[in-house]
Each structure stands twice: as C-alpha cells, then as structure tokens.
C-alpha cells in the first residue's frame, strides 16, 4: 500500500487523503475543505497525526476538515485543531467520527488562542483505548459536540479548561475528567 513517511500538507482549497499508512503527519493549514479517511497512522512520531490549524500570523485560513474511519496506533497525538493570533480570520471546523485510537496518548486536542480564533468540533462515535487524556479542550468559546464515544483504559476521558457535554458515551476503566 501507499505510505506517507514524513509530513504532507494540501496545496489548494480541497484535498482527500485516503488509504495511506502514515508514519508522519497530515497538515491542513489553508482555507478549504479536507477529508482524511481510511488511513492507518502508525509509529512513535511526537507530531500530530492530523493537524487542522490556522496559526499563521500574516495569512487568514478557514479550515474545514473531516477525519473519519481511520486507525491511529501508538502516537503521541492523534487529531489536533488549533488557532492563534489576534487579527485576520482564523477558524477550524472539525468533524472527527468513527475512528479507532489505540495507545495514543492524546487522541483529540482542540486549542483556541488569540481574540479572533474559532474552533468548532463534532467528535462522534470514536473508540479510544489506552490514553492519558482522550479529548483535550483548551480555550474554546463554543463547546464541542461529543457523543457516542467509547473510552477504555485511560486516565481522563476529557481534560482542559473549556466547557463540553459528554453524551451517550461509555467509560470503562477511565474517569470523565479532573473537573467532572
């Protein structure tokens, strides 16, 4: 099968990354709509497996990403979304659904910083096994939709300083979160 060993990003306003074994990272940092599905993320890279972000100080970006039906194994980070800076437009709209995260320290992390940054997310029907912090929400103004996820053998299902609602999830050998 096809492999991505290093980092790759989309050049343009739309792209689909499908059917790869990924030891590096897929970086989504330009205005557009992106799909990441049917991939297997492996290896011990400290980098985010999938990074949807608008963090460039001189260029606006509105990133819309769907990450679905992937397998993440043994990574430090699975899917991240982040914004930064106080001017221009910086937004990430993320849908993470039907993925499997096995022995990923931090499967999903959402971070908003800067006055204009906006991160919206729907995290639905994922299986997370063997994690430190299943979902991390930091600085978000809008609570992410979190539903139908299975959390097994982890420290905290949810961590961070942002509000959230955990609905229709199952926790087995994992606490909801430090502030729960």
Descriptive account of the structure:
The chain is built from no helices and 20 strands. The model has no long low-confidence stretch (mean pLDDT 92). The chain has strands spanning 3-4, 7-9, 14-18, 21-22, 25-28, 32-37, 40-41, 48-54, 61-68, 71-73, 77-83, 90-97, 100-102, 106-112, 117-124, 127-138, 145-147, 150-160, 165-167, 170-172. The strands form 2 sheets. Strands 1, 2, 4, 5, 7, 8, 10, 11, 13, 14, 16, 18 and 20 form a 13-stranded parallel beta sheet that branches. The protein is globular and about 45 Å long. By secondary structure, the protein is mostly beta strands.
List the helices and strands and how they pair.
Blueprint: E1 3-4, E2 7-9, E3 14-18, E4 21-22, E5 25-28, E6 32-37, E7 40-41, E8 48-54, E9 61-68, E10 71-73, E11 77-83, E12 90-97, E13 100-102, E14 106-112, E15 117-124, E16 127-138, E17 145-147, E18 150-160, E19 165-167, E20 170-172
Parallel strand pairs: 1-4, 2-5, 3-6, 4-7, 5-8, 6-9, 7-10, 8-11, 9-12, 10-13, 11-14, 12-15, 13-16, 14-16, 15-17, 16-18, 17-19, 18-20
Task: Throw out a few tags for this protein.
7-stranded parallel β-sheet; mainly beta; 180 residues; 0% helix; single chain
Summary, kept brief:
This protein is 0% helix and 59% strand. It has no helices and 20 strands.
Shape type: globular
- Proportion of beta-strand residues: over 45%
* Low confidence ranges: none
- Total number of helices: 0
Mean pLDDT over the residues: 92
Radius of gyration: 15 Å
SS-based class: mainly beta
What is the succession of H and E elements? EEEEEEEEEEEEEEEEEEEE
- Please report the total strand number as a whole number: 20
Largest sheet: 13 strands, parallel
| Helix percent band | under 10%
Oligomer: single chain
Distance between the termini: 43 Å
